[in-house]
Amino acid sequence: MSEIKNIKVDVLKSKQKSQVIVKITDSENNEGIGEAWWGLPDPENPGGYSDPIASVIENILTPKLLGKNANNIEKHWQDLSDFGYRYGDQGIYLMGLSGIDIALWDLFGKKNKLSICQILGGAVHETLPCYASLPPLRSPKLVIQETKRAINLGITAIKLHEIETNYVNILRTEFGNSIKIMVDVNGHYSLLEAIKAGNKMKEHNITWFEEPIKPMRDYKSIKTVGEKTGIPLAGGENEYTLTDFKNLLDKDILTYLQPEITKIGGITTAKKLSTLIEMYNIALCPHNFSIGPSLYASIHWAFSSLKTTWIEIPWVPENFGFDFYNELPKISNGKIKKPTGFGINLE
User: What homologous superfamily does CATH list for 118-337?
Assistant: First the structure.
């Protein structure tokens, strides 16, 4: 029996966005790599907001796993979920469990010389389109520059994280209708502000309006934004459990669903969520703003899930300050090919 021998957590500290990397080693010295959600940026104390998530892994989850059979991924997920219920079934506990879960799946894939996509049943897509997800740049010059860089690689879809609607106009003026534009404001607007902004952006044919208002779970107001603007809405990155997603989908608000694999409980939850997404016949666009194990895990999940429509690729200027763990997967003509290799690795 392959036992879990060691679990190590590394917080890669960055002023822009830290990462919480999980490494699990078994008794045969095989290693799996995962990633938990990373917390919010903290320029004054890089990694500071990641530390509580790392602490959950080190002090609550790890002691419950050491010496256990590394192959029993579903059992471990259920046992840890039950154990942590009084801590809460969402938030940093589930983020930590996500990192553990992804690492266990990676370990299992490597040992059995299978990709995660194969373990999930195999790819149902040969390629999938990706979009360049820009960070908040707050500079028309930088937005145009980074969009050109993406176009040069064949990417023809750009997601803005700008709160001023004129950026949509800037891209349309510069690039015409040759690109698709998504807009994510991370819950910046009030209801009335979101309707006003949405109606302005509607003139420029945006693909979706993401998390338009705060609070980001105000489903009634979010639905109002969609009804008043007629723009397709995207969201879901701040949902956690299967029950959360069912509750959201029952509201019939979104066109694009964006679960975050580092928040929902990892691949074990993702594979179950795929079935729910098919039942509700909604487009899946896994949310991810990390170039690390979470991106690769999201890609394997995306290719195994029938309703996947887009893959999010973090797109940052050189020397922007992100301490990324891996490089981007290969992109050809704006698309990513189905993953190969073992575990979550892409080859």
Answer: Enolase-like C-terminal domain (3.20.20.120)
